[in-house]
Each structure stands twice: as structure tokens, then as C-alpha cells.
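To the wet lab folks,

You asked to see what we're planning to order before we commit. Fair enough. Below is the target structure as C-alpha cells, and below that is the sequence we designed to fit it. If anything looks off to you, flag it before the synthesis order goes out.
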């Protein structure tokens, strides 16, 4: 679904461009990558890696940081979806490694916790055994199921490759990654003047540290968790910075079971579906409230929002933290975004023209294109380049051999 919010009073001069990405676990990241790839192919005149500002929350922070670092959607797809290892090999283990350390440390605390529980029961036997036992158990439950250290190590290595950086201050564009300060409940914006010295890789895992799944991330003596706890998408950061054209992507929307075919009753689908619908409804309603104020607060800015349709069963009934099937999810998002662009090709093209951009209509109407087409095209170009280089070197060898073997 594509929502266009044209500026009430467009400026005559062209302003800055921005991308704002919300979160949604691995599923959300794969959806956003597929959507971004479709947008990149459709828009001509500006590459997505050449925007002026990037804002990322939770899993969206990984893609925002990658774009700001010069990794286009083809390269990201090659690593995250296609499994190519030209840069730094990516494995599902990076996201799904059990947090063994916290479990071991909690078990080590068992004798002391049992002693404290017994002491509490002896001091207040009238309270019973169970309250004391529950108190002991609560101190032994690990804070996280998975370890976010491998993801940090991977990002640090990826951003250390040639022509990239793990330092906010060395980026060409502005990058803002939002996390939640656990001790205050307020948002922290990494990359701004106060937090510019934090490593980008560290900021990303802090923003994506969903409580219960990943442990809080300590930075400067404070603990940070998932940025979506405060707000779903911080497009306002880009608008407040003066950006006039902002592309927003939100991968999680509530499912409209009343319009699905066949019709489904979510109350009968299980607890995970109930909690999933509740979570999506809460974060989506907050986002709608925020975006409803943008036209009045920022009358000179054009904003566009890409989301799944409310009847998209593929997005709703796939586990948010499922890594398998990533190619299918990226392809699904790619095709849905292309469909949405075609449905509003006229209004979207008009909006783009105000910013000196255009639509590649031929590419957009090519029904044979898939998410992987660009990777195959890139591989063909690489083979052609290698062949030409080999031919050139062979020719040079013949020339040198002829020169030095002449009598």
C-alpha cells in the first residue's frame, strides 16, 4: 500500500532527501529490503545510497546504516538474501545464536538465590513457600534468549571493509539510529551531536534489542533496548532537519481478517496471532497519529509511505523472527511495492518531478522482473568485465612477448 502526502506549500528550490525505516524483526528487514529494491529500480535521477539523511529504528536501523554506508539494495540482497560472500559472509547464526553466557551466569546465582529465598520464608513464614520461591525464580530468569554479540561483530567487520565506516562522523550523509533508554523510557538518537562517538554497529544492536529476545545494550553506563518501544518510525527527525522529500517504510500493519479470503477468525488462530495483532495495532496506530500531523507541521515536505496491505496474509502469518524463506519474503515485498507504484504511477511521478526525479516506467511495467533480476544482471556485467580484462591482459602479454623476442 502506497500513501502519498504531497506538500501543502512546495518550495521552488529542491531540498534534501531522506529515508525513514521502521522495525519488525528479520521479517520486517526482509520486507524493507524488497521494497527498497523496487523503489531503487523505479526512481531515476538519484540513487538511494545518495540521499542526505537516513533514519532507522529496530531492524530498520540495519538497512538505514547500510544505505548510509554506500551499500545499495543489490549488494545488500546479495549478502543477506542470495548468500553471496563477496564481502563478509552472512549466516542465520548471526541472528539466532542462543545467549549461553547469561544462562550460565544465572545458574551460577542459584545457590545464593535459594539461600535468600529460604531466609525470606523463615523471616515471614505466614506468606507461604510459593511467594518466596517465585521471588527466587524471577532473579534466575535470563534477560535474553538470543545473543546480539555476533550481529555486532558482523556489522563491525562489514563496515570496516574498504570505502565504508563504523563511525557516524565519517559518513557522507546524516544517519540517525533510535533506541530506548531503559532507565528513563525516553528515546536516544545515536548519530546526533550527543551520541556521534558511538560506533554504528553498537547503535544498531541497541536499537534492535527487543526485550526478552536480546539483552539490553550498555553504552556509556546506560542500558538501551528496541527503539520501537517509544515510537514506530522517526520520520520526524528527517523533517525537523529540513528534508523536503522523505520515503518511509513500515513493514508491520494489523491484519484485516474481515476482508481476507478465506475469512479467518484471529481469536481461533492461537496466542501468537493474538499477541501479534495486538502489537501491530498498537505500533501502527501510534505511527498514524504521528504522520497525521506532518502536513501541518512540515507544509513544505513531500512524504511517501510504503506498507503491506491489511489483507496481506503472507506478511501477517509469517513469524516475525523467522529467518527461513527470506528470499520469498523479499520477492513478495518487491512485487507488492512495484504493484503499488504502478497503481499510483501518475501522482507519484508528479511528486518526483518536483524534486528533479523521474520514474523508470519501462522497468516498472516489466512483469518479468524479479527481486533476483538485478543480481543476475550484475553477475553478467561482472563476467563481461572479467572477460574484457582477460582479453586485454592477453593482448598485452602478446605485445610484450613480441617486443622482447624480436632479434
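Sequence we intend to order:
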Amino acid at each position: 500500500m502506497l500513501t502519498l502526502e504531497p506538500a501543502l506549500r512546495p518550495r521552488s528550490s529542491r531540498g534534501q532527501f531522506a529515508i525513514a525505516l521502521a522495525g519488525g524483526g528479520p521479517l520486517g528487514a526482509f520486507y524493507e529490503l524488497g521494497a527498497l529494491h523496487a523503489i531503487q529500480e523505479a526512481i531515476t535521477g538519484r540513487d538511494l545510497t545518495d540521499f542526505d539523511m537516513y533514519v532507522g529504528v529496530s531492524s530498520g536501523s540495519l538497512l538505514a546504516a547500510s544505505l548510509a554506508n554506500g551499500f545499495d539494495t543489490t549488494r545488500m540482497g546479495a549478502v543477506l538474501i542470495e548468500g553471496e560472500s563477496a564481502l563478509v559472509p552472512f549466516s542465520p547464526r548471526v541472528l539466532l545464536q542462543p545467549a549461553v553466557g547469561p544462562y550460565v551466569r544465572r545458574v551460577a546465582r542459584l545457590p545464593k538465590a535459594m539461600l535468600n529465598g529460604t531466609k525470606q520464608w523463615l523471616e515471614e513464614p505466614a506468606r507461604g513457600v510459593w511467594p518466596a520461591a517465585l521471588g527466587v525464580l524471577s532473579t534466575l530468569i535470563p534477560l535474553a534468549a538470543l545473543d546480539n554479540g555476533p550481529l555486532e561483530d558482523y556489522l563491525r567487520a562489514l563496515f570496516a571493509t574498504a570505502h565504508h565506516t563504523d563511525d557516524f562522523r565519517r559518513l557522507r550523509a546524516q544517519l540517525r539510529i533510535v533506541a530506548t533508554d531503559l532507565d528513563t523510557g525516553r528515546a536516544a538518537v545515536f548519530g546526533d551531536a550527543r551520541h556521534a562517538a558511538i560506533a554504528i554497529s553498537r547503535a544498531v544492536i541497541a536499537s534492535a534489542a527487543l526485550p526478552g529476545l536480546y539483552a539490553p545494550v550498555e553504552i556509556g553506563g546506560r542500558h538501551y533496548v528496541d527503539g520501537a518501544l517509544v515510537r514506530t518510525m522517526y520520520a520526524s527527525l528527517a523533517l525537523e532537519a529540513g528534508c523536503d522529500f522523505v520515503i518511509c517504510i513500515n513493514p508491520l500493519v494489523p491484519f484485516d481478517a474481515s476482508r481476507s479470503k478465506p475469512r479467518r477468525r484471529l481469536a481461533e488462530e492461537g496466542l501468537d496471532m493474538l499477541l501479534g495483532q495486538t502489537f501491530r495495532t498498537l505500533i501502527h496506530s501510534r505511527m498514524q497519529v504521528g504522520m497525521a500531523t506532518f502536513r501541518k507541521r512540515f507544509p513544505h515536505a513531500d512524504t511517501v509511505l510504503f506498507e503491506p496491505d491489511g489483507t496481506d496474509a503472507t506478511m501477517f502469518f509469517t513469524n516475525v523472527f523467522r529467518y527461513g524463506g527470506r528470499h520469498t519474503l523479499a520477492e513478495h515485498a518487491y512485487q507488492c511495492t512495484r504493484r503499488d507504484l504502478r497503481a499510483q504511477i501518475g501522482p507519484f511521478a508528479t511528486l518526483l518531478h518536483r524534486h528533479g526525479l523521474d520514474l523508470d516506467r519501462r522497468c516498472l511495467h516489466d512483469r518479468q522482473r524479479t527481486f533476483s533480476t538485478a543480481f543476475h544482471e550484475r553477475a553478467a556485467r561482472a563476467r563481461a568485465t572479467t572477460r574484457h580484462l582477460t582479453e586485454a591482459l592477453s593482448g598485452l602479454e602478446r605485445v610484450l612477448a613480441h617486443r622482447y623476442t624480436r632479434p
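Structural context that might help your review: The two ends are 74 Å apart (CA to CA). The chain has a mean pLDDT of 82.

Thanks,
Computational group
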